[in-house]
Amino acid sequence: MTTRDLTEADLKSTLAENDIVLIDFWAAWCGPCRQFAPVYAAAAAKHPDIVFGKVDTEAEQRLAGAARVSSIPTLMAFREGILVFSQPGALPAAALEQVIDGVRGLDMTQVHAQVAAQQALQELPREVTQEEFSAAHAGGGAVVVDVREPMEYRAGHVPGALMIPLGRLGEKLDEIPTSEPVYIICASGNRSLQAAEALRTQGIEAYSVAGGTSAWQQSGREIVVGPHALANA
Fold this sequence. Notes:
Order of helices and strands: EHEHEHEEHHEHEHEEHEH
Number of domains: 2
Largest sheet: 5 strands, mixed
Number of strands: 10
Shape: elongated
Number of helices: 9
CATH class of the largest domain: Alpha Beta
Low-confidence stretches: 229-233
Strand order of the largest sheet: 1-3-2-4-5
CATH topology of the largest domain: Glutaredoxin
Oligomer: single chain
Distance between the termini: 53 Å
């Protein structure tokens, strides 16, 4: 099978009507795109059961923007209409075969369950009030992550809060207990909202505490002063 040019008008139907769809986002002026083109075409001929689509990012700028393509070439793979792979750069033939094998081998029951869980998570409120947080915290089992800087944390933090500065959140994910909802707190609620959004993209049920530590302290609730962080940050 040869490659197929895709447009914004036919992308949705292509994804709906085919099990596996690969899409190469490219442009004529792009050297790496031209380098990848014959590799992609050879794979298309080798795997006739897969749709190998191509999107010209110059002609389909809205589609490229909607797909959040920031560099080209970018290869995306869809299985049963779900995006399961996305990576920029011109892949060599062996790496492309590995991607194809990986997509074929996916347990789609599990993938659909993960997608459904993620969608349900996104429908939950992003923030909790001070009162809601206080009630959860009073039970003693709330997971609280303080995303301020160490100096701010030492000046006063919610009892039991785990200190992970916002800039290091990605590298510290394995230190966050996720069996229960995670409450993210900062000084006023701005950084915590960013952090909660980031954790939700990882499938973690996280809530930003509105008003942050400032509102917590102003309400007369307990504040701990000192370097007693629960994580090495």
